[in-house]
Amino acid sequence: MPRVASEHDMHPVEARDGQRGEEPRLTVIGHLEELRRRLGISLAAFLIAAGISATQMERILHWLQQPVHPLVPAFAFFTPTEPLIAYTKVAVLSGFLLAMPVMLSQFWAFVRPGLTRRERAYGLAFVGWGGAQFLAGGMFAYRPVPLLRDGARVLVRGAL
In terms of pLDDT, which residue wins out, 12 or 117? Predict the structure, then answer.
């Protein structure tokens, strides 16, 4: 049962920029309990997302296969356990990607009280820019430029 921070754990704190902090200051034990709670929420989000991904495996695999379908019409498995391992990897990775917003928000909620207003502004700009880069990288990986597609076609033909 999680322990709620008591008055003994909280102390008013003077912020680094000279302004009184809005949030109470926690002791080491209070910080560890807060970290444990936030990690638990992140883990629960990941497990739920991975479970949902596992139930939608055929749709996810069909979606992942679309960009390379002309070159690789079907997946090839060479050992009896390989399909299970591949399905598990896709479910775990999909769950991780789906749970990432919850995990990042928990991380930000844990770190935010220790930052000054200026550092918070930089953090929000970093999150916005990082999110845009993540989406751009995902689109680039899913829909490669024609030059890369032609290069993959040459490599696949050369291997046959």
Answer: 117
Contact 50, 94 (CB under 8 A): yes
* Partner residues linked to 11 by β-bridges: 25
Domain range list for the chain: 28-73+84-159
Tell me: the pLDDT tens digits for 17-49? 445 455 667 788 988 999 999 999 999 999 999
Q: Please name which of 17, 18, 37 lies closest in space to residue 26, comparing C-alpha atoms.
A: 37
The answer to whether residues 153 and 71 touch, using CB atoms and an 8 Å cutoff, is yes
Q: Are the C-beta atoms of 93 and 64 separated by less than 8 Å?
A: no
- Residues 75 and 86: beta-carbon distance below 8 Å: yes
The residue that leads in pLDDT, 123 or 3, is: 123
| 83-142 per-position pLDDT tens digit | 999 999 999 999 999 998 899 889 988 988 888 989 988 888 888 888 888 888 877 777
How far, in Å, are 22, 119, 160 from residue 112 at the CA level? 11, 9, 54
Rounded-to-integer distance, Cα 37 and Cα 44, Å? 11
Write the CB contacts of 99 (distance below 8 Å, at least 6 apart in sequence).
42, 45, 46, 48, 49, 50
